[in-house]
Design brief:
The complex is a heterodimer. Chain A is an alpha/beta fold. Chain A has 14 helices and 13 strands. By secondary structure, chain B is an alpha/beta fold. Chain B is built from 16 helices and 13 strands. The chains are: A alpha/beta, B alpha/beta. Chains A and B meet through helix 2, helix 4, helix 5, helix 7 and helix 10 of A and helix 1, helix 3, helix 6, helix 7 and helix 11 of B. Chain A: One of its GO terms (cellular component) is cytosol.
Chain lengths: 401, 424
């Protein structure tokens, strides 16, 4: 019988998935997983639950809000507290809609922009692998420009400026607000200001992706600097927020799309459009994760716990970076490793080559991405020495050049 | 470093574009809810939203669901990402529940064994409809779908938004408040060969009027003959009979026809929004029955490719509840009992309303044939508006009443109001 699914071919899987599978199968006692971008505790537990989340879940169990339909825009307390976390207060000119975590919030933003005629989206390289697919999925084009300079191991600000200056005026720039994935290399305040200048002068549009708020400085307020600065400049932009990392709510899918528009008459329109997009795709975002996030951000006791949790996570990441650098210095590992301290968040773009990363897996059971991205949360007091000694050995055995 | 520009930045072009965004029409049902909230009449009744309310008018958490949540909280599950199409355990649970039908569906069991059923967790029912719509847009030869008239308010928008064209087939006779079976068959026969056809598995939304097994046979024969692609939407499994295992006659029959090679493929959208009361947790699935195990693998990989750029992966709170209930025999029987009592209440109150309605000039017999969460009253938009304005009874203007808003405390008031309105 002829098939209706003519021409259907098996789609290739994300290479990170194969790495995850290999890592899961490996039961060597020294195994270190520094691949997937999730937080791991000092004891190496990737299933770490933030104490404030645990407390919120217990609260919800006692004072059960049930599972009823929420508003189409999302849970009101959640939206309000999500705005406060991003903007520091409830801004009067931001339309916010709950979304299916960070990806869902970006998808909403891209769909909205597409609906008003934007079609060119600029993505700095290297970047989160899903941007390209997400932009194409809504029927738009992505244009890549270098964000990172592999030589200097820092932001290639000249290339960023060039891209901003040369992009057609109706272009969208997608920039990560903090803890750049995969490089860990963020823009300085001065660099942000420079970028905002060009965006404002040239009538470009900015989408912030903020997936790791708090994991750089240990303080969610400090990590929202770029967005708050853009807001104070009265720019129009969209901020796409996720609680996957800074509350560890990964699979609960808690996110938010915040659209900042200065024509107040537009606000309801923008909200209605976001709701309409959602309505035809998922109806609305899931409740449970949003209820946890709302509680954590509104209950004074949980708020305090969360601030402490985030600070602890931020400090641990910084501490383990210091330890790693100390070991590389002590071992006199070839190459300059000092950049590890200049980076922030989960990721460290190590400069480890593809061959070296393959050998690290083969010989030492250390799983990093083939592009050299190391999730430093996979390191802790008890394995950082083994990690550094392994890298040291591999770098000597298989020199980078 | 560049100084901040002193030139005022030009927003004219962008704002012009922002201003072009048309105000999207508000969702009718939610608009009714909002008006209901504002109404100060103590006797007000909300018959708009399709969610269950108990006899005191309150939403419930199924006791079995609450127990599953307690188990989950004690176990403290991890929050790491599940797969793009959900966890294997969820997929297996759903597949086994629906297609193996508690060991009673030999054809379905065989299809599972042959690896021909692809199941992906989705963002509840809407998400599953959207995923299959996008999938069909990309890979199906036919790019049109026919849906019953009337159907769930959002069906057409979901399909057309994905780029399919949608058309109606006859379903309901508003004059006689009955299934319009002759025209249903005729309009399906008139559709283009290979069209996608949307079928409501049970508790047709909004009419509550389902086909009999004999009628399904006739429809399935046309589907086979015209090579239509059946897309089954099952949002209310369990709400017709009280038992989810009894409400899937259509699925069992389709599985047989697939095994016999008469209908090569079909797809099923379902959710646990209603039958576990997981509305806000967005817990559903899409299953596609493929012609072979290898085709199933290809389909699965394409579903992943489709979902990843939309929202990466689905939420787990609801799906963990489902997994927990299906992996514990006691919880499973508790859930079945919970569901049975929910449906039982709806049927009791439906009968009560029927008894109290004035039948002298109005035939209410259709109420007794309708099943599920709704009664399709046949009242006109004017009558519905009068109910709202004079009696604070809120329903959609198509005359669909959500029976779950009715209880023994307000059924007399409601019946009186309706009797007054139809007198004119």
């Amino acid at each position: 019988m002829p098939s209706v699914f003519s021409g259907l071919e098996e789609s290739s899987v994300d290479p990170i998935i194969n790495l995850m599978i290999a890592c899961k199968k490996d039961d060597h006692p020294n195994k270190i997983d520094v691949s997937v971008g999730v937080y791991q505790s000092e004891s190496g537990d990737p299933h770490y639950v933030f104490p404030c989340v645990r407390a919120a879940k217990e609260h919800l169990m006692e004072k059960d809000p049930g599972h009823c339909y929420t508003l189409m825009t999302g849970i009101a307390d959640y939206l309000s507290s999500a705005q406060k976390t991003i903007f520091g207060a409830n801004p009067s000119n931001v339309a916010s809609v709950q979304a299916v975590a960070g990806s869902g919030s970006l998808h909403l933003a891209f769909s909205l922009l597409k609906s008003i005629g934007y079609k060119d989206f600029y993505i700095g390289t290297p970047s989160w692998s899903n941007y390209r697919g997400m932009i194409e999925h809504v029927g738009c084009n992505y244009i890549e420009y270098p964000y990172y300079n592999y030589e200097t191991r820092s932001v290639d600000i000249e290339a960023v400026k060039k891209a901003l200056n040369e992009a057609p005026s109706k272009s969208v720039f997608v920039l990560q607000a903090v803890c750049h994935n995969p490089t860990g290399c963020d823009l300085s305040h001065d660099q942000w200001s420079l970028i905002f200048d060009i965006i404002q002068q040239r009538g470009l549009f900015l989408v912030f992706d903020i997936a790791y708020q708090g994991l750089s400085s240990g303080d969610v307020n400090k990590d929202a600097w770029a967005i708050r600065e853009a807001y104070s400049r009265k720019m129009e932009f969209i901020a796409c927020q996720s609680y996957s990392k800074n509350l560890g709510l990964y699979s609960e899918r808690a996110g938010c799309t915040h659209v900042c528009t200065w024509d107040l008459a537009n606000q309801n329109t923008v909200t209605s459009k976001l709701v309409a997009i959602s309505r035809n795709e998922v109806s609305f975002a899931p409740a449970f994760g949003a209820r946890i996030a709302a509680l954590v951000q509104t209950d004074p006791r949980l708020q305090q716990m969360w601030a402490e949790d985030v600070l602890r996570v931020g400090s641990r990441l910084q501490d383990v970076r210091k330890q790693a650098l100390d070991w590389f210095v002590k071992l006199q590992t070839p190459g300059d490793w000092s950049h590890i301290l200049e980076l922030a968040g989960l990721f460290w773009f190590s400069g480890i080559t593809q061959l070296q990363s393959e050998k690290l897996i083969e010989e030492y059971h250390i799983y990093a991405l083939s592009n050299g991205r190391v999730n430093v949360a996979g390191l802790n007091n008890s394995n950082v020495e083994y990690f550094c000694r392994s890298v040291d050995a591999i770098v000597r055995k298989f020199p980078s050049n | 470093m560049l100084r901040r520009s002193t030139r005022p930045f030009s927003v004219a072009t962008r704002l012009a574009k922002w201003n072009e965004i048309p105000l999207a029409p508000p969702d009718k049902i939610l608009g009714i809810s909002e008006a209901f909230q504002k109404d100060t009449n103590s006797k007000k009744i909300n018959l708009g939203v399709g969610a269950y309310r108990d006899n005191s008018g309150k939403p419930i958490v199924f006791p079995s669901v609450k127990k599953a949540e307690t188990v989950l909280l004690e176990k403290e599950t991890d929050k790491e990402y599940t797969g793009i199409i959900g966890s294997k355990k969820y997929q297996d649970s759903v597949r086994n529940f629906i297609f193996n039908n508690s060991g009673k569906d030999a054809s379905g069991a065989q299809l599972i064994k042959e690896g021909r059923i692809v199941t992906a967790q989705t963002i509840s029912g809407t998400g599953s409809l959207r995923v299959i719509a996008d999938f069909l847009k990309r890979f199906n030869s036919a790019q049109n779908i026919i849906v019953p008239k009337p159907t769930w308010a959002n069906h057409v928008a979901v399909f057309t938004d994905a780029g399919l064209s949608a058309d109606f087939y006859a379903y309901y006779d508003k004059e006689n408040n009955d299934l319009d079976f002759a025209n249903l068959k005729k309009s399906i026969s008139d559709a283009a060969d290979e069209s996608v056809i949307l079928l409501h598995a049970c508790c047709h939304n909004p009419t509550g009027m389902d086909l009999t097994p004999e009628q399904w046979e006739e429809v399935l024969a046309i589907i086979e003959q015209k090579k239509l692609f059946p897309l089954v939407d099952m949002a209310y499994q369990g709400f017709a009979s009280g038992s989810p295992y009894k409400d899937i006659g259509l699925i069992r029959r389709l599985n047989e026809l697939v095994q016999e090679g008469k209908i090569p493929t079909y797809a099923l959208c379902q959710s646990f929004a209603k039958n576990m009361g997981l509305y806000g947790e967005r817990t559903g699935s899409i299953s596609i029955i493929a012609e072979s195990g290898s085709q199933a693998k290809a389909i699965e990989s394409q579903l992943k490719k489709l979902i990843r750029p939309m929202y990466s992966n689905p939420p787990i709170h609801g799906s963990r509840i489902v997994e927990t209930i299906f992996s514990d025999e006691n919880l499973l029987s508790e859930w079945l009992a919970d569901l049975d009592s929910v449906v039982g209440r709806l049927n009791v109150v439906r009968d009560k309303l029927y008894q109290k309605l004035d039948k002298t000039n109005y035939n209410w017999d259709h109420l007794l044939k309708q099943r599920g969460m709704f009664i399709y009253t046949g009242l006109s938009a004017e009558q519905v508006i009068e109910l709202r304005e004079k009696y604070s009874v809120y329903a959609t203007e198509d005359g669909r009443f959500s029976i779950s808003g009715v209880n023994e405390h307000n059924v007399d008031y409601l019946a009186d109001a309706i009797n007054q309105v139809i007198k004119k």
